[in-house]
């Protein structure tokens, strides 16, 4: 992509990012449908646009940043960005104010119950444990299957509704784990309401991989996955449900989520397909055999198969500090999406099926094939040291910046990318902002997931306020944050090859060593004078296990270390990651 279209786009494009800064406020005309800027709303013909919007649309088209190929680009598709909540720069008016003006709600979007063929717990079992371990929201995601499609998706709903009544302080969503045609699994969930079961059931029976013809070609299955995402979007548009979200689960586990599929999912509808697990569940699976299962952390113990994308390296089939290779590699696949300007977020969760050190088992006399569920679990008196999962909230958290304690607010926060994740309660709280250099007003700055647009040549900086941990986690020790890394990448726009999975301009630009004993730290990193679009993201670690990243020490000198199969104590290797903030010249 040439420089000139970028410069023209950046001069003319404006969202409501970064107000309070010293810049002009030349807002484009907004269409009536969906709050889309008129220049990006292709339902409005050129003849009905103002002269400035006609000019703006021309620049966007010329740069290849308008229309089907531009979905989810923060560069020049604010329609997609707006749908993803990218245009919100400041903290909310009202609502919670836990940190940075947002109410940060911890959750888990990947949890199984007795309605999954390989799990055993009641909905209430999972929910009560998750709530006790500090979760504010969770999603029940039983496996897509013949039994679930025909029986379970309806049968679980009364249990979910009873749980909502029983636990008023917990937001309990209904979803399912989708067998993505031609690919791995994904969380799909919808806003609660009278049509939640009907929409999920129709989706599963029509688009789940288990329900499609075995004779389908790979191309047919990939097309079915796209159609499934578009179906969810159509149900929101038709007001059958208030919202629907898709997050790809354990994306690198078997190597079958190819880069072009991930891009195509996002581009199918960026208001539905919003991200993937930055770290998988099953974090107890690597505990050494004397105390645990002695397997691979996250169950990442695979090798390439005929179905795997051939370009992925062998290292991608293992976790790195508990995180998926796609997220853990600086300059890798996640960064290649962010460098395009694609809004694509990371999460963590438990993927809880059967939990480490629990003492229950499936109820006797169960007939899953006939009933679509196992009988209620019973006490066994035997401690499950070989189970690979933790209870929801026990180890991993997806922390969402919400405007209130409400289902819609959680979904909006996820869609907007106002998310940071951690393992083992490494930190208590975090607020990250990109600001015009020196601006410390509380009402300014662009938070996680946002797009800061400032005049070319303006000096910007990243500010981090981190509340350090001062209470024990659920392994009975107080985690200590040792280092925080700032990662910056150039935004280069759409790629020619959709199977690209490298971002060579992304690297760690600054590392902060954190002194022991403080209760909180405020960190500031100068991002320099803006001359080209970029994004910034942050991670932190207890510093126990590090190694140079796969792209080399010059890119990532102290990254997460490759996890060892059979010897991966999850409590001895803790990290947090944030989602990105983009900074664009205008």
TrEMBL record:
SUPFAM superfamilies: PHP domain-like. GO terms for molecular function: 5'-3' DNA exonuclease activity; 5'-3' RNA exonuclease activity. This is Histidinol-phosphatase. It comes from Paractinoplanes toevensis. Residues 107-182 form the Polymerase/histidinol phosphatase N-terminal domain. InterPro entries: PHP_domain, Pol/His_phosphatase_N, Pol/histidinol_Pase-like, TAT_signal. It comes from the Bacteria.
